[in-house]
Amino acid sequence: MGDQATENLSLDQVRELANEVFRACGVSDEACVVLADIVTRSERDGPRSHGLRMLPVYAQSFTSGYANPEAKPVITRTASGALQGDADNGYYQHAASLAHDQLIEMARENGIAAFSCKNCHHLAGLRFDVEPLAEAGLVAIGVINSLSMVVPQGGTRPVFGTNPMAFACPREGQAPIVWDQASSMVALMDIRMAAAEGHPLPYPAGLAPDGSKTIDPNAILDTRSLLPFGEHKGAAIAFLVEVLGAALAGGTLSVDNQDREAHGALNIKGGSTVIAIDPNRFGNPMFNEYINRISAEITDNGDARIPGDGRLKMRTRAMQDGVNVATDVLDQIRDVIKTAGS
């Protein structure tokens, strides 16, 4: 954070601060627990841009009337291997927590099962949606489409959201392998974080007002035009996420932002799908050995590392030493608590 003044918080203090914000916004007790846990895990594991810095955005989604703080999600089993959720205009993670046990049971029964959810908001790292399934011994893939900010390769206006996807699989005797990534060159919140901290991006990640590629985060925030990673390859992944997220779940298309604009909302509202696979039902009793072999080939390969494992060092450090949070972020959060609670 450079020369910014900071304050050290334990993870328990992070959780309580998040709870204060959600309670001040009138969020139900059940959803408070889920959302505060997501914020805490973001500070613990990264991306920290999705942790405490996101609390004012969560609050704005509720106080603007865009998201429902008292949402009562409904989960319906539509087929032997399919669950559909309606989050009642609340947050996806609340609905997913209600579907969690049934999804695991269905995956173990059928070998594969999926949970799709519509009418939902999402602000966290997607990895936290799939990691609990890997901890239960399942392989999981998750996607969610978002606000139209990504310009397709060769295009001039945004069509897709940053449209992230995530993957998780169990690893014998160790924490699961978990990664997530946006379809854009850089995640939106990392661009906002760079702008807030006053430094450029490491490489061009969006378009400036004149249509040129730029590393200036403020210019990209002005145009809201991000570039896909890998040019046409990232655009293809964004299309996949749009289909599995919005189209399959019945969520809001990335280009359909009129309701969001009317509320001045800053958060994501799309459709989400997570697919859970039980490796024990796919006929390879050596699954764990395969994972161990793949992992060994990576770790014994120069400076290569297993995707997503960087978070484990952050986790250990945060659990031992807490996290340093910029005082201006904390001041903003405390103002949110006062304003929302008044």
Describe the overall structure.
This protein has 342 residues and is an alpha+beta fold. The protein has 2 domains: 1-63 and 309-342, Hypothetical Oxidoreductase Yiak, Chain: A, domain 1, CATH 1.10.1530; 76-184 and 228-308, Ribosomal Protein S8, Chain: A, domain 1, CATH 3.30.1370. The protein is built from 12 helices and 11 strands. The strands form 3 sheets. It has a 7-stranded mixed beta sheet, with helices on both faces. Strands 1-11 form a two-stranded antiparallel sheet. It has a two-stranded antiparallel sheet with strand order 8-9. β2 and β3 (82-91) form a beta hairpin. The longest helix has 19 residues, at 92-110.
